[in-house]
Amino acid sequence: MFRRLEGPQTAGRGPAFWGLFALVLGAALAYPLFSDGYTVGNTVYFFVWVFIALSLCLIWGYGGSLSFGQTAFFGIAGYGYGILTINFGSAYGFTLLALVIAVAIAALFAVLLGYFMFFGRIAGVFLGIVTLAVTLMLERFMAQTAGPEWRIGAARLNGFNGMSAMPPLTIPWPGEPIVLFADVGLYYLVLGLLVFVYLALRILMNSSFGNVIVAIRENPERAEMLGYDIRKYQLITFVIGAALAGLSGVLYTVWGQYITPSSMGMTAAALPLIWVAVGGRSDLTSTVIGTLVVLAAFQALTIYGSQYALVFMGVLLVLTVLIAPNGLVLGLMNWLGRIAARFTQRAG
Amino acid sequence: MDIAAHVFSALYQFGDAFAFLVLSACGLAVIFGMMGVINLAHGEFIMCGAYVTAATVHAGLPLPLGILAGTLVSALVGVVVELAVIRHLYDRPLDTIVATWGLSLIATQGTLIMVGSTMAGVGTPFGSFQVGDYSYSIYRIVLFCAALGVLAALYALFNWTRFGVLARATIQVPHMAAALGVDTRLIYSLTFACGAGLAGLAGGLYAPTMTLVPTMGATFIMEAFVTVVIGGADVFLGTAPAGGVLAVVKSVMTSWQGQLFGQIGLLVAVIIVVRVLPKGISGFVLRERT
After folding, report:
1. Distance (Å, rounded) from C-alpha A74 to C-alpha A262?
2. What is the pLDDT of residues B240-261, one digit of tens each?
3. Closest-CA residue to A13 (of A202, A279, A214)
4. Total domains present in chain A
5. Is residue A51 part of a domain?
6. What does the pLDDT look like over A249-271, one tens digit per residue?
7. Contact A125 B218 (CB under 8 A)
8. A266 neighbors B112 (Cβ within 8 angstroms)
């Protein structure tokens, strides 16, 4: 049953891992029962960021191309959702459709950008710079849209203050539609999406597609000599990643009912990188764990002043790159795995 | 207004854009050309230069000496950064990007904590002059001359000095240079210091023209990146012509639609150029030559 979910590209296998997975999932499902709405809403905020972290993990960790564009897709989809729902309202489940359309817009943008980059055979550091330039450009563009002439339909873009007051996700239901505010309702939806995306990515990375992606990361020339059109594979990975980042953006907009240009700025682009690098970029599970842990630490530190928290994050990033380039969580998981293996060997 | 005034206005804007692009990019280009490392903390070195310049000018030094101080302090910081971080990452270029980004985050926030959200600026020297209906700042002309001067000085440094010869040998075949007794690590450190110093120089030169905030580096880096991406790995065959081409794009778009569209024009130009010339202008020129 777990054959397609396990493989060389993802850490964690066997009944022990899946037992633990089920345990954590069960705890996550039961969690709102023991907590209040505010804390649950805050947890949703953490989950929202996991999607963009996974997208970076896919493109950077597995694909080997460092992209700073994830925040751009995040912002595009967030703004897209805002513009759509402010114009067309939330009746008849339109918010769900708006979610899909907004993600599709981000993916389409990624197709365009990715075409120029991958078919121009930009790789390595240049890819990072071009995507970073695109992200910063978008931020600057959105930041200057303060005037009343910057409107799309009924939606004012509002410059640096950003857009707000878009309707939350609404599921049409006979009788009363279910409005998912940022507490328990949204929690279960986002948790469900998270589990779905996590498992789907596991299947994807352990399929032949995933193997090709990793092969391209390890040695692009060799992969090409073996007959794979690496440009296509890179573009597809990039677009999937962009869609995930877009999903993150839409959920963020839905969660707080606002989106600002600074969600595409330098700091915003740096944070996912830190989560993924600290967690372990080349593995999905460690990315998820790393993101949640670092986010929680960041929030705890922010209480004492967000400037200090950011300095700490910078130090953490530099130290991780210097000392544990594969990520702290992944390193820890591999170490535990080795201990477990030795233990079972001795027992057997 | 007659045609001469129009032409002068266009030339002035071109020169202004050219100076900005070349000055902000050359430090990045020197480091990238030498070691294949992209220094994402480049903007923070510029910020460092600008802050030191402003601080020394406030302390009573004349502006040129302040700029010199900014350059030297940035170069020193560059040496420290190279020794502490960059040195360990030469075989992992992508990780260098990530690490220097971490440094940039530390520097921006650290400055915010220590100096505060803004710093008193330095007045623009020299005043202005009148051509046709518009007045122009003399300092901008000085900046243009400074950009040309920096290019000339770099050319001299890399072609006529012993350091230049050793540096070019290290670029070409690092192992062979090392085998022939060149201390390549020292060369790398010096080059990084040189790049950081150039960034500091750009910061010092532009300190009188802008507000000094911890995030001011971000104003420079996009232009710097774009110029380096289009230019490719060689400072003279790449950065200078790329600066020229992009300055045309930027000044035309800016005078047509405003500052923001100037920048968007740059970005679009870059994306198209990398599609056509993946190795940048210098890669194109070198391929034609061989």
Report:
1. 11
2. 888 888 888 888 877 777 777 7
3. A202
4. 1
5. yes
6. 999 988 888 888 888 877 788 88
7. no
8. no
With 0-12 CB in 10 A as exposed, 13-18 as middle and 19+ as buried, what is A203? Answer: middle
Q: Encoding tokens for residue B269?
A: 């130009």
Instruction: Say whether B260 and A140 touch across the interface (CB within 8 A).
Output: yes
Yes or no: say if A207 and A12 are a contact pair by the CB < 8 Å rule: no
Q: Which of A118, A119, A122, A125 to mutate to test the interface with B (most CBs of B within 10 A)?
A: A125
- Tens digit of each residue's pLDDT (9 = 90 or more) over B162-216: 888 888 888 778 788 888 888 878 888 888 898 899 999 998 888 888 888 888 8
Structural domain harbouring A234 = 32-265
Q: Note whether residue A286 is domain-resident.
A: no
**How far is Cα A110 from Cα A119, in angstroms, rounded to an integer?**
13
**Is residue A259 assigned to a domain?**
yes
Q: With 80 as the cut, is the pLDDT of residue B282 above it?
A: no
Amino acid, res. A287: T
- Give residue for tokens 């207004």: B1
B257/A contact by beta carbon, under 8 A: no
In a domain, A120, yes or no: yes
B171 C-beta neighbours (distance < 10 Å), count: 18
Interface contact A129-B229, CB threshold 8 A: yes
pLDDT, tens digit (0-9, with 9 covering 90-100), for A205-232: 888 898 899 998 888 889 888 988 888 9
Give bridge partners of residue A164 from the DSSP assignment.
A258
Q: For B232-254, give one letter per residue: b (16+ CB within 10 A) or e.
A: bbbbbbbbbbbbebbbbbbbbbb
Strands of B9-64, DSSP E: none
Q: Is residue B290 over pLDDT 50?
A: no
